Amino acid sequence: METRPYFILGDAAATATAGAIAGLAALGATGEGFNMLLAMLIGMVVGMAVVMPVFFAFAPFFGAMEIMIPVMFGGMLSGMCIAMVEAMRGLAVGDAAGWGALIGLFGLVITSIANARLRANA
What we know:
By secondary structure, the chain is mostly helical.
């Protein structure tokens, strides 16, 4: 992964956008009182599906492989977590977008740490 500020900020913007969109989509796809396991599975699939346009929008500027893994992982995590919270107690639209963006950024941190550890071993 690139370490120049342009790419770091681009990765962060892409994963936050993907997380927010995935969170909103998962919120719309599930409802309060859903089975949590079913909500998690729906959120995972919906989250990964709706972030593909985000990937295609950001990839020309920041690199395809550098964007794809964090965006897809962040979208999947956001969709799963937001859908499960919605199934448990319900969630407001703004909260779903905000938490989704934060969870997407968490996915970026996890993939960056994994990349650094893999490169250190090579």
